[in-house]
Fold this sequence. Notes:
Strand order of the largest sheet: 8-7-9-10-6-11
Number of domains: 2
Order of helices and strands: EHHEEHHHEEHEHEHHEEHEHEH
Shape: globular
CATH topology of the largest domain: Rossmann fold
Number of helices: 12
Strand content: 15-25%
Amino acid sequence: MKPWKQDVETAAQIVVAFDDNQLAMRLFGRHSENLALIERRLGVAADQRGNHVTIEGPREACEQARLTLESLYQQLRDGHDLTSGDVEGAIRQSLSRPTKAEAEAGERTGFEQFRLRKRLVRARTAGQDAYLRALSKNTLVLATGPAGTGKTWLAVAYAVLLLERREVDRIILSRPAVEAGERLGFLPGDMREKVDPYLRPIYDALNDLMDRGMVERVMQSGEIEIAPLAFMRGRTLANAAVILDEAQNATPIQMKMFLTRLGEHSRMIVTGDPSQIDLPNGQASGLVEAVNLLSGLEDVAHCAFSAADVVRHELVSRIVSAYDSADATKKREPR
């Protein structure tokens, strides 16, 4: 059964052909999984025969599917691999493309991207695109939103870009050492071994963006420093790209302390999810306060991500939406 409702006036059929059979097979995915994802997300039927795909469905959805496939095929032609996140990003880009009037007015349709030594970094959603643009224009960027939207990964990627361009001398990465609803007890080892569990997502991002050997070298040289938030007091962070991740777990006092560490020729990025605060009951979040106090100041940007920006498994976006709906319902209920 076709995943779209037949309507004679709006139904369309588009045939898309690709000139490289091997690339076409990679485009469609193993067992045509990429085509299946496009079908589900856009509400079309895609019939693949060799290097041809026949797309049927509502006219606008067929055009979005064509744009998605062509964008992904160009990525393969440029020598890049495809992941499910890339497919999701291409779908969202096709959904958010400007209207005909906006295009005629000269509005840009491409998302921001930049190349690191190891890989190309691209925005996959409109929210990520706005985030990268904000990072390039502002000294302080506050990024809030649910898990899986790329807040931390893109922040680390942009910091690596600044380091590779020698626009900064070092990267400083920090997180509050707050346990997520569990008491982990005493952790053995030296200071780095004690804080490693809290900072593991940052290590993962670094290893994804830089060669593993290079990560070890720059950490040994001090060009990349990873430290818990409590160790920031009393420092002046100059000529650096400074990232505070999981900032929803910083107290207002800690947040003020951290923000006032900003030195000359530095950039600061603060990321977090206000819906996942692990502070003790009754303790206010410094991230929420900072967004309220600082949004709108010159050289400060606030980027708010939503479930539409989730680039992990497509189910994550639906999970986030379900929790958001439940929270909204609770707020409407009389007390």
